[in-house]
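W.,

You were right to be curious about this one. When I first looked at the sequence I had no strong expectations either way, so I just let the prediction run and decided to look at it fresh. Below is the sequence, 264 residues in total, followed by the output.
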Amino acid sequence: MNTTLNQLDHWIKNFPKAVLGLADADLTAKPNPKKWSKKEILGHLIDSAQYNLQRFTTAPLATTAYQVIPYPQSELVDRNQYQNAELPHLVQLWQSLNQQIHHVCTNLSATDLKKAILLPDQQEVDLAFLIKDYLTHFEYHLAQILPPDESSLGLTEPDGINYQTAHQRLQAVLATQKFVTLFRHGSMYVELYAPEKEDLQQPHEQDELYVIISGSGTFFKAGKRFPFQAGDVIFVGAGKVHRFEDFTSDFQTWVVFYGPLGGE
């Protein structure tokens, strides 16, 4: 949890000035009429912060497993008119909400972090997972807002990723997270993923490719299961429920996310 909170603190301090340095034309341009602009993505991150602050605050108070309720993401972006709002106001609002999230999460007890959480698909996780997933969601959208040289959280060398270097970075944080983001460019980003015992991931907003590095097991997708092993390449469309099951202890995979939200 300390790694997650340290990373959040890093972005609380550095994300605002990076966004304020972007040109207005870049922030308000839409890839197409149905897609969010970078300014609207920032607005979505504000909505996410508001809802998750409430979750992180009230979940420890629940007497039973806390149920996560989805919120109307697109509708809120439209209702809040983020596209027409003043940028300094949006940046300050995002920063203030996340400062409070950091404050709340820093003061959660070990018992609080183990609080049972029911995701919308009724999968059970704990509050610690929910907090880490919040940061993952932010960093996903971070790559859509900032240039690659500012949003990359890992290796920035565009010519390739060395597995040994990636593995060393993963080992350094393996006690607190099971993936490392290594490279970002445009809509694409690459992770090294190594879950332990159970794969708790949720559907992603982009298309993705898994390139299995090592290990074997069973892959679940679209209600079907099939075996996988080192060297296999698996495609998963955006929004599709999927997970790795019954995998060996040496399982690791590259994950490549790419393309627009909602898939191609």
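Here's what jumped out at me. Confidence is low (pLDDT under 50) at residues 149-158, 172-177. And, maybe more interesting for your project: The chain has two domains: 1-151, 153-264.

Coffee later to discuss?

I.
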